[in-house]
Amino acid sequence: xxxxxxxxxxxxxxxxxxxxxxxxxxxxxxxxxxxxxxxxxxxxxxxxxxxxxxxxxxxxxxxxxxxxxxxxxxxxxxxxxxxxxxxxxxxxxxxxxxxxxxxxxxxxxxxxxxxxxxxxxxxxxxxxxxxxxxxxxxxxxxxxxxxxxxxxxxxxxxxxxxxxxxxxxxxxxxxxxxxxxxxxxxxxxxxxxxxxxxxxxxxxxxxxxxxxxxxxxxxxxxxxxxxxxxxxxxxxxxxxxxxxxxxxxxxxxxxxxxxxxxxxxxxxxxxxxxxxxxxxxxxxxxxxxxxxxxxxxxxxxxxxxxxxxxxxxxxxxxxxxxxxxxxxxxxxxxxxxxxxxxxxxxxxxxxxxxxxxxxxxxxxxxxxxxxxxxxxxxxxxxxxxxxxxxxxxxxxxxxxxxxxxxxxxxxxxxxxxxxxxxxxxxxxxxxxxxxxxxxxxxxxxxxxxxxxxxxxxxxxxxxxxxxxxxxxxxxxxxxxxxxxxxxxxxxxxxxxxxxxxxxxxxxxxxxxxxxxxxxxxxxxxxxxxxxxxxxxxxxxxxxxxxxxxxxxxxxxxxxxxxxxxxxxxxxxxxxxxxxxxxxxxxxxxxxxxxxxxxxxxxxxxxxxxxxxxxxxxxxxxxxxxxxxxxxxxxxxxxxxxxxxxxxxxxxxxxxxxxxxxxxxx
Length: 665
Ligand code: ADP
Ligand code: ADP
Ligand code: MG
Description:
With about 675 residues, the chain is α+β, with helices and mostly antiparallel strands. It has 6 domains: about 5-105, Rossmann fold; about 110-130 and about 210-335, 2-Layer Sandwich (D-amino Acid Aminotransferase, Chain A, domain 1), CATH 3.30.470; about 130-200, Dna Ligase, domain 1; about 340-455, ATP-grasp fold, B domain (D-amino Acid Aminotransferase, Chain A, domain 1, 2-Layer Sandwich), CATH 3.30.470.20; about 460-575, Glycoprotein, Type 4 Pilin (2-Layer Sandwich); about 585-665, CATH 2.40.50.100. One adenosine-5'-diphosphate (ADP) binds near residues 165, 200, 201, 232 and 235.
């Protein structure tokens, strides 16, 4: 076994790998960019080395720097995590040349599976069922269109080098084909440096079911059953589970067998995932699942497999890479119970899932009821440079119902202030009737998106607690106060006070009267309500109102309060009383970067006539592309950025000419 390994990654996965290394008595070496100098993965490691500035191309993707750190620190092997260099065969070659072990498959195996078209051709030859479609060399648009017609619409065009849900276009009719092809080619070229595509039959009611496989350097390969990752938004996984709901035993066996066959076909060593798509238009059937792609690395959602099998997959990776045979044979691997994983992200579901950046002023993860894999701590930044993941929340139960109930409870107990998160959206998914029944397919989220992202009404209690906090009425008075009372509880301050709050864009003056004995009356829209604070320490309140007792948490931020109540988080603004409304004059005439990012595509120039909602800029941030559209019809007055520019949030990108000058243009 290795004595010391380097983890060429950051965030939760770097921390996750270190936990197992520590368990096995292996020393760990972290690498970090300037943005991560005080990150959790750096603090956890036995040693840590700076490898460059924040952008990934200058740090976490620097093969030479990482090899240099291996040599300096004496690390014998490198764990790549997922993302970054994990599926880069050149990295593996460079490590091999330097005599350092890559904890993962061979460069050849990665190359064989790196391109979706070649991987499909290989699997077809190995007798693994593949999605019907075209995946050969010829890329002439007219020829591709004929192929699409033969496959039969709808079809899905995929960039062959694509990943992370990028470079895909669904096409429903022949006359949309060429435009969609161009878009997929462009995305493939700009994101992956490869504009070539493959075409697949688009399945209209599919489930994403993948099989965890493992191989060793002695010719053995096994599978560790399946995961269902059908809950997706824009082809990206949101909640995953294992096993797959309603999976017939015969189909499970067939999928496991096909996955092992795939791994053996390329002499695979280490952890890998064979992704299949199942056509469930007539339910799950053993003859309706098809190979989609192989991910030659540890997958984000590997914990659900660990929960149902009781195996530590990172331990398996380390053992296999150090030359040991697989810890178990196929017959010894069993599973029981059910597990879910939800990906908690700093993103704003209501604003089109825009990544949110900021400081995690307050972070309480449900560690007592769930397995929480996280790479951040309270006070850490969610920076614009990396994936905005806060944590993976993983639960286990004897049955699917129990595990899902625990996931909902864990999400409701999650408290994050300082960054908007998708916790409410994830909780809404847990409450979704179809999902609860196991009736999942990749279109579920899209169909019910509006209700899933609906913000819950703001309860009176949240407003009242925010008003009391804003007025400082919940804080203990000076420490020398003999009665240890709270400010405002004194008779002489029982006068009327007003708290100015920003409630979802509306300013409200909330009147509060202190009645003494920790009692207050608060004037709310539906009348006056009385509140008695029973306990108030560090923002955690137990209160009584209308004869019912409840608890809540209020966290004070720089310009807002976050109230956690009944499993929801409500952000209430504290407007600056002196400032006028925030609306910048003429803001509707400008296109402003909603977050820091890279201007990837600029599709208009000064003087162009544009129409409302016409896409003008594609901004890339946090591994996602965001399309910014024209705010109204008009003529572009100014273009203030160029393709390739890195912009900060709030940067004005384009400005429309004033309305009256449009007429003249
Ligand atoms: P898939 O959806 O194919 O299973 P994952 O969900 O594991 O892939 O991750 C989505 C994509 O984003 C993958 O290509 C993965 O490598 C990449 N990725 C995920 N998290 C990170 C991260 N923290 N840093 C860099 N890349 C990441
Ligand atoms: P990536 O490399 O981006 O993960 P995949 O080929 O794994 O790309 O596809 C990602 C997702 O897109 C799948 O999980 C599935 O939801 C959807 N998808 C892929 N192929 C098809 C298809 N032929 N029909 C319908 N949906 C598909
Ligand atoms: Mg995939």
